[in-house]
Amino acid sequence: MSGTFVGMPAFPPFPRAAHDAVRDTTLRGNLRHATHTIRDKRAKAVAELADWQQLREAGKRIKDDTLRHLDRYLVQLEESVTAAGGTVHWAADADEANRIVADLIKATGETEVVKVKSMATQEIGLNEALAAEGIHAYETDLAELIVQLGDDRPSHILVPAIHRNRGEIRDIFLEKMGSWGRPAPDGLTDTPADLAEAARLHLREKFLRAKVGISGANFMVAETGTLVVFESEGNGRMCLTLPETLISVVGIEKVVPTWQDLEVFLQTLPRSSTAERMNPYTSMWTGTADGDGPQTFHLVLLDNGRTDALADDIGRQALRCIRCSACLNVCPVYERAGGHAYGSVYPGPIGAILTPQLRGTTSGIDASLPYASSLCGACYEVCPVAIDIPEVLVHLREKVAGQGGRGHRLEKAAMKAVGWAMDRPAVMAAGERAMARTRALHPKRPPGAQAWTDSRDLPELPEAPFRDWWKKNRT
Amino acid sequence: MRVALFVTCVNDAVYPATGIATVKLLERLGVEVDFPAGQTCCGQPQFNTGYRHETEPLVRRMGRVFEGYDHIVTPSGSCAAMVRDNYPRIARRAAAQRRGADLAEAAEFLVPRMYELTEFLVDVLGTTDVGAYFPHTVTYHPSCHGLRLLGLGDRPRRLLEAVKGLELRELPGAEECCGFGGTFAVKNPDVSAAMGTDKVRNAAATGAEVLCGADNSCLMHLGGILHRQDAPLRALHIAEILGSTEAEPHV
Ligand code: SF4
Q1: From atom 7 of ligand 1, which residue's Cα is the shortest distance away?
Q2: What is the complex's ipTM, to 2 decimals?
Q3: Does the C-beta of A327 come closer than 6 Å to ligand 1?
Q4: Which residues pair with B54 in a beta bridge?
Q5: Which of A1, A76, A209, A405 could form a disulfide with A222 if both were Cys (CB 3.0 to 4.6 A apart)?
């Protein structure tokens, strides 16, 4: 489906965006420091569990089984949520989801909402859609707050402001908090404790005032209708408990069949994402409860391209993703290009396989994403649900190559020609010999080879190919 | 023992010294080496760029060319990984379209018989001391496909540690990709070069004279950066180090 909106359309192809990012030394420094720290911590946290590989396999199987019978589990989920006092809405795409949420908020008469950090609402551009209806959506996750105040874009799934350092955050707080609510204290320093306190004071008044909360969910349990949010700060729990109305927007692939299935993800998600044995806050709610928490609960189930991905027998494994971001943190390409280069709210390896499936591969950025990888396999190695990201990348490259256009026609012709020669050893040998014989004439930087020679020299060619040595010396 | 050498297209055309060193090393260890002349390329560049159909004739060719050999040895981790990881996948994809029984046959034959050089030395010949002599400081970069797809583990290290005169220096961030990645190197040249430059910096920090690897395509990229920087460090394939002896030292 090519019309699916996954945030931030009209971005330049990946290589062009990355060209600028690799030259931004502050960004490179911030990213390198942050990803390497969390990468090493994750490795230690995972090494503590002797049965990690079994947990990984179990997570993969639970997700695969659910996806295979998604129709059944979603209907079961709707029944459970309804029975527990919630209302379920179905949204085919971003527009429909945004419309449903806006109407629900308007029905309450409110013009302000507080938000739990959520990828699904980022994906559909909910904040912007609500703003167009005169509704202010306040991000309450610390990193999301930094992004929102800085009029910036998220560059990481878990740490959306990973591209910012403490000094930059201090400046954003000092400059922008005042226009959104309680200003930052004078003389704010860039120590983590000071920054957190400024955010706490700023957010507290929003929590106490808000009548509507908006969230996503990490998991939804079909048998009980329970939604689950994993978080570190407790701000999410404020949004989930204080308001009168709670609206959750969740991708349809987030359902798991049973409560017991959570046991696997409760172990793998925190260790993979924040490198913790357990995350500080795990909030679970089932419909509504009299006198306790929100008295009205709406669940918006979001497709937005997911059923298209589900129809692809290789691509569908991307729907197993639990958004831990371990693959981003180990990715050497992400580390250098930064999250913005991926042109979607899903950056890094998972973004490179998910975005082109949700949005289709027709735009320049989407067609370039499957190539934004050296296929080193570090992502697959750490993925807690064993998504073979390199396999999906190559599969999507095949799709892009097959659709022709923008250089791929020429590439296809070249690949065909090389393939033809490679299937004829005599032709290949003749080519090798011709290359070797004329080596003295080859320019050091031949025209058309800049992509290689701008940063690297070409190897010196040998006098003769190996096969000639063999013929002369061993036959 | 008689083995077939799969030299790979890159080594054949650009790095014949690696192929020659492999032959001499294996012969020195009492192995009889054949070079089936019909061999060309495993098809990795085509496959990884998204041209699966263009790869299929090369899978068939590999099956035909190496028929009858129980051991096929290749001085390239990524080409060995291509066969082991992707040939069955290519066959499965074709089978899903109800065709390509010959692809499945080729994959089935090749997968258990294809050995990356260090794997063959350690697992099949059961040796880590190959009697080599190389009086230099060396740091080893384990290329991704050897590391993650083949699981070469410490085999290359053990082989290098047993080389007389060789001093092995630990490479910081060894497991990070060098940034070659096949067509990635030219489709995303900026990121590729940034990764390569970091790798080269880490290698230079060890103070070693030689940056060793088991994949010449990665070494072509890293060597190209080193050459451009006029660095004192040079890139060299592990076969050429293991092939070097006191009687016939590497030059
Ligand atoms: S693809 Fe795997 S590693 Fe990456 S975010 Fe999703 S679950 Fe985590």
Answers
A1: A321
A2: 0.96
A3: yes
A4: none
A5: A76
Locate the domains of chain A by residue range.
14-306, 424-474
Distance A224 CA to ligand 1 centre (A): 26
A384 lines ligand 1 (CB under 6 A): yes
Q: What is the pLDDT of residues B20-76, one digit of tens each?
A: 999 999 999 999 999 999 999 999 999 999 999 999 999 999 999 999 999 999 999
Mutation to probe ligand 1, out of A157, A350, A354 (largest number of atoms < 8 A from CB): A350
**Of the options 3.40.50, 2.60.200, 3.30.70, 1.10.287, the CATH number for the domain spanning B137-242:** 3.40.50
Query: What residues form DSSP beta bridges with A230?
Result: A282
Q: Please give the CATH architecture assigned to the domain spanning B2-124.
A: 3-Layer(aba) Sandwich (3.40)
Q: Is B9 on the interface with A (CB under 8 A)?
A: yes
pLDDT, tens digit (0-9, with 9 covering 90-100), for B146-155? 999 999 999 9
Q: Is A412 on the interface with B (CB under 8 A)?
A: yes
Does residue B88 sit at the A interface (CB-CB below 8 Å)? no
What fold, for A14-306? Answer: Rossmann fold (3.40.50)
- Do the beta carbons of residue A253 and residue A261 sit within 8 Å? no
Among A349, A330, A329, residue whose Cα is nearest residue A159: A329
From residue A59, how far is each of A228, A297, A383 by CA, in Å? 16, 28, 10
**Residue spans in chain B of domains classed CATH 3.40.50:** 2-124, 137-242
Does ligand 1 come within 6 angstroms of the Cβ of A324? yes
Q: pTM for this structure?
A: 0.95
Q: A279 in helix, strand or coil?
A: coil
- Cite the beta strand spans of A199-254 per DSSP E: 212-215, 219-221, 226-231, 245-251
